[in-house]
C-alpha cells in the first residue's frame, strides 16, 4: 500500500496489488485440490447433469473455496506476518489491505452461493454456504487458535467439496458421498501434522496450538499412524459399496499401504530431528495420495462407463 498527498492536503491510499495478488488470496494450491475432489463427487454421483450446469457448479465451488481462502487470510493476517511460510502473502506483505481482502472474500462467497443456487440447486448452494462458513468462521476464527484438535475438527471444511459436487447432481447426500468426505477428513490430520512437525517454531511464535506443540512429537507421530491407517481403509471403502471396482480397490490399497509406511517412517524419526526429512516426505506424498485416490475413482468410473 502506498500513501500520497493530493492537492487538497488529503491522503490517498493506492493499492499496489496486482491480479496475481488477488489470485493468491484465493489459495490456488488448496483450491486446486478442492476443485478436483468436487469434480470427482459430481462425476461419481448417480444420475446426470447438463454439462454446462456441471461446469457452472464446479466454477461456483472453486469461487466459494477461493472466498473462504480470502476470508482466512483476512482474519489470519496478524499471524501470517510472523510465520515464515506465510509472511509474503499479499496482506502481511502490504500489497492488499485487510478491508479489501474482507470485501473481496464476502463478494465472492455471495456470488458463488447465489449462482450455484440459481443455476443448479439450492441444496448444493446451501451446502457450499455452510462449507464457506465452517472454514472461514468456525475453523479460522475459533478452532485454529483454541484447540490442538483444530485440524481434526476443522478438516471437515476441506472434506465437504466432493459432497457439494455430489449434491449438485442429486440434490442430496448418501453413504457414498459420506465415504468420499471421510477420505479427505481422515487424511487431513496426518497431512497437516507432518507440516506442523517441521514448522513447530512458527506455530510456537504465533501461539497456535498445533498438536506437536501441545501434545509433543511422540504423541503426534502415534496419532499420525492411526489416522494414516484409517485413511487407507477409507480409501478402499468405495469398492466395498460398489461405487468403484475391485481394480480400484487394489490401486487404493497400494497407495494406502505406502501412506501408512510413510507415517511409520515419521514415527521412527528421532525426536528433535532438525532436518525432519521423513515428515517433509510424508507431507509431499500426502498431497499426491489424495490427488491419486480421487483420480483413481474418476478413471475407474470412466472405464466402467466405457467397458461396462
The number of strands is 2
At the fourth level of CATH, the homologous superfamily of the largest domain is: UbiA prenyltransferase
Mind describing the biggest β-sheet? 2 strands, antiparallel
Helix share, percent: over 70%
**Under the CATH scheme, which architecture of the largest domain would be assigned?**
Orthogonal Bundle
The best one-word shape is: flat
Whole-angstrom Rg:
21 Å
Poorly predicted spans: 3-14
Beta-strand fraction estimate: under 5%
Average pLDDT works out at 93
Number of helices: 15
Element-by-element helix/strand order: EEHHHHHHHHHHHHHHH
The name CATH uses for the topology of the largest domain is Tetracycline Repressor, domain 2
Q: What class do helices, strands and sheet pairing give?
A: mainly alpha
Instruction: Write down the CATH class of the largest domain.
Output: Mainly Alpha
Strand order of the largest sheet: 1-2
Fill in the keyword field for this structure.
308 residues; mainly alpha; Tetracycline Repressor, domain 2; Four Helix Bundle (Hemerythrin (Met), subunit A); two-stranded antiparallel sheet; 15 helices; flat; disordered N terminus; protoheme IX farnesyltransferase activity; EC 2.5.1.141; transmembrane; UbiA_sf
Please describe what this structure looks like:
The protein is built from 15 helices and two strands. The termini are far apart. The longest helix has 31 residues, at 277-307. It folds into two domains: 1-173, Tetracycline Repressor, domain 2 (Orthogonal Bundle); 174-308, Up-down Bundle (Four Helix Bundle (Hemerythrin (Met), subunit A)). By secondary structure, it is mainly α. The protein is flat and about 55 Å long. Strand 1 and strand 2 (11-14) form a beta hairpin.
Amino acid at each position: 500500500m502506498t500513501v500520497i498527498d493530493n492537492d487538497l492536503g488529503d491522503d490517498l491510499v493506492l493499492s499496489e496489488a496486482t491480479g496475481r495478488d488477488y489470485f493468491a488470496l484465493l489459495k490456488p494450491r488448496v483450491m486446486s485440490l478442492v476443485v478436483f475432489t468436487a469434480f470427482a463427487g459430481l462425476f461419481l454421483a448417480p444420475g446426470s447433469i447438463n454439462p454446462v450446469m456441471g461446469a457452472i457448479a464446479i466454477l461456483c465451488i472453486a469461487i466459494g473455496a477461493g472466498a473462504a481462502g480470502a476470508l482466512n487470510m483476512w482474519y489470519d493476517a496478524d499471524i501470517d506476518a510472523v510465520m515464515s511460510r506465510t509472511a509474503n502473502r499479499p496482506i502481511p506483505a502490504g500489497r492488499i489491505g485487510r478491508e479489501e481482502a474482507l470485501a473481496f472474500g464476502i463478494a465472492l462467497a455471495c456470488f458463488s452461493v447465489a449462482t450455484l443456487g440459481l443455476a443448479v440447486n439450492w441444496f448444493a448452494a446451501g451446502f457450499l454456504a455452510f462449507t464457506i462458513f465452517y472454514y472461514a468462521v468456525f475453523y479460522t476464527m475459533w478452532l485454529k487458535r483454541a484447540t490442538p484438535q483444530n485440524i481434526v475438527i476443522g478438516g471437515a471444511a476441506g472434506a465437504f467439496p466432493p459432497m457439494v459436487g455430489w449434491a449438485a447432481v442429486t440434490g442430496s447426500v448418501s453413504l457414498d458421498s459420506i465415504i468420499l468426505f471421510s477420505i479427505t477428513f481422515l487424511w487431513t490430520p496426518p497431512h497437516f501434522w507432518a507440516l506442523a512437525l517441521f514448522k513447530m517454531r512458527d506455530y510456537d511464535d504465533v501461539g497456535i496450538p498445533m498438536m506437536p506443540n501441545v501434545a509433543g512429537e511422540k504423541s503426534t507421530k502415534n496419532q499420525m499412524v492411526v489416522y494414516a491407517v484409517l485413511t487407507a481403509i477409507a480409501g478402499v471403502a468405495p469398492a466395498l459399496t460398489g461405487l468403484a471396482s475391485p481394480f480400484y480397490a487394489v490401486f487404493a490399497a497400494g497407495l494406502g499401504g505406502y501412506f501408512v509406511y510413510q507415517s511409520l517412517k515419521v514415527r521412527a524419526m528421532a525426536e528433535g530431528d532438525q532436518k525432519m526429512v521423513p515428515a517433509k516426505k510424508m507431507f509431499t506424498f500426502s498431497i499426491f495420495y489424495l490427488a491419486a485416490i480421487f483420480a483413481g475413482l474418476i478413471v475407474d468410473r470412466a472405464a466402467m462407463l466405457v467397458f461396462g
